[in-house]
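A quick word before the example. In earlier lectures we treated sequence and structure as two separate objects. From today on, think of them as two lines of the same record. Here is Glucose-1-phosphate adenylyltransferase written that way.
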Amino acid sequence: MAFVLAGGRGSRLHELTDTRVKPAVYFGGKTRIIDFALSNALNSGIRKISVATQYKAHSLIRHLQRGWTFFRAERNEFLDILPASQRVDEGMWYRGTADAVAQNIDIIDSYDIDYIVILAGDHVYKMDYEVMIAQHAESGADVTVGCLTVDRSEASAFGCMAVDGQDRVTSFLEKPKDPPGLPEDPDKSLVSMGIYVFTWSFLRERLIEDMASDTSSHDFGKDLIPEIVAKGTAQAHRFEDSCVRSPAGTPAYWRDVGTLDAFWKANINLTEFAPELDLWDRDWPIWTYSELAPPAKFIHDEADRRGTAVSSLVTGGCIVSGTEIRESLLFTMCHTNSYSSLNRVVALPYVYVARHARLKNVVINRGVHIPEGLVVGEDPVEDAKWFRVTDNGVTLITQRMLDRREAEK
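And the structure line, produced from the sequence above:
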């Protein structure tokens, strides 16, 4: 089975996670971030999936109920939602990633499984978990850890692993100042993806021991994995061995879209001629809840009032009315009006852009009404008075920010 951890707030996305948990944040025009982990599991042949939720979970649960209810119990397949519900103690929510699994031991026991894949629900990537599970079964390791290969200079921000020539993990270091290099390339390091494969009987015993510990933070990366590395056997699984590439030979794609800059960049990169993330791959589809919507419509064809979109993704239900759109991504049911321009804009569903607006390098939250004549992205000092502007010049616009601006002007 796959156990997806989807309770993290994602505070570095700021106002984008004010009303939704990070895995429920929109991505790529039609999907949510969690759809990638779930689709990977489904495409890998895993038909038993549980999703643990906690922080502001309504948007996520609603998405799962609307888009992921096609499993059939009579075929012994399912997607279960496991909210933090004080099942162990009236004052105890999920205390960490390991505790989220431990509090549901009785439910997992009822699934009658041999192997469990622990997944983070907040990363964007395509991976065949079957390859990793097969490696785990063949190696006989206590745990197999999914790993990214990164430049050693960047590895200090992650949990890093030192490995021997057979990729057995010899030490696990949390955000080390001097990350260990690879045996074959000292300038590269292996970092944890937060993906683990266990035999359920082994993990079950470790979780019970961890729950009884007063000194543990009840986290896989901080507690369980380092202890298994020290006392047992841990095997590294390199992402490049199981990542789904389309076409073959393209770079292995994995993104943590946990900051505004990273979120904006990953979405805008989809507008490139040949994006690294292929959402058009029918052999490895990204499943999601697809809202019923009419086709996108482009209207007006005058010299300064032409509905156009160049190098952009425009989703169903959008109306581009006399607006010039470039290198932008419009989610479902966005409506833009005449004499406006959008350049490198990520507009979440149901955004409305009035006339004569000029927006550049912007993320617009769901349901925002952009007023007539608003200019954002040309004067960062002025923008910062009303909106959230990152160090890299990306501006986040929410309705509350616009309401405050209107009230004070």
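Notice the following. The CA atoms of residues 298 and 320 lie 5 Å apart. We will return to this example when we discuss secondary structure assignment.
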